[in-house]
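Lecture notes, part 5. Sequence design as translation. It can be helpful to think of inverse folding as translation between two languages: the language of shapes and the language of residues. The source text, in structure tokens, appears below.
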């Protein structure tokens, strides 16, 4: 073969070689793209359970543990305040118009019988000295009353009586004679209460 023929075949072979390489690369790429991805292996330890998810969640106000004595706040409709006495709910029975005076547990009010014990046998300190004397034929011992202006209308039981307290008369107790005199004489509508839990009054006279 002449030297001119060899020179003409050199570039041609070079072009064919380059073409072959390009075709081979394209074939390999298309094979890799079309091939399915290998399956992913998942171990049992990698699967998160509901307990794991809840454990990872931050504690919210609802999920925090309650302290001793703490209650869960619950939205409820607003109810009017229910009066209580001795831990039991009360309901009003009615009102009675009474002539109300006041007395003290000393000799100036009770005379020689001033020993700090009421006619029902209870101490004058019972219920924080919030108690009344009444005619027990009208309001028996243990009757629960609220008197306007007497200890802000707090519940006061009938625990005492007096020789001059007859009919619609009422005597409210104060610690001192001076305070009792300040009360004076008032005509008031006194509210009578009873327990609203359906149970007996449970009052027991001490003597």
């Amino acid at each position: 073969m002449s030297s001119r023929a060899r020179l003409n075949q050199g570039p041609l072979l070079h072009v064919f070689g380059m073409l072959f390489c390009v075709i081979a690369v394209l074939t390999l790429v298309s094979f890799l793209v079309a091939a399915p991805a290998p399956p992913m292996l998942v171990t049992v330890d990698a699967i998160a359970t509901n307990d794991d998810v809840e454990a990872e969640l931050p504690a919210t106000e609802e999920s925090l543990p309650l302290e001793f004595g703490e209650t869960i706040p619950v939205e409820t409709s607003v109810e009017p305040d229910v009066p209580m006495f001795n831990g039991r709910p009360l309901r009003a029975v009615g009102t009675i118009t009474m002539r109300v005076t006041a007395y003290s547990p000393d000799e100036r009010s009770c005379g020689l019988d001033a020993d700090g014990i009421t006619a029902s046998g209870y101490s004058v300190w019972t219920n924080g000295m919030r108690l009344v004397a009444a005619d027990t034929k009208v309001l028996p011992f243990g009757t629960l009353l609220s008197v306007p202006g007497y200890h802000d209308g707090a519940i006061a039981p009938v625990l005492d009586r007096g020789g001059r307290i007859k009919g619609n008369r009422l005597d409210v107790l104060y610690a001192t004679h001076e305070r009792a005199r300040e009360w004076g004489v008032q005509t008031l509508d006194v509210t009578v209460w009873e327990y609203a839990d359906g149970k007996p009054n449970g009052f027991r006279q001490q003597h």
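The translated text above is only one of many valid answers, since several sequences can fold into similar shapes. Confidence is low (pLDDT under 50) at residues 41-48, 59-72, 74-78.
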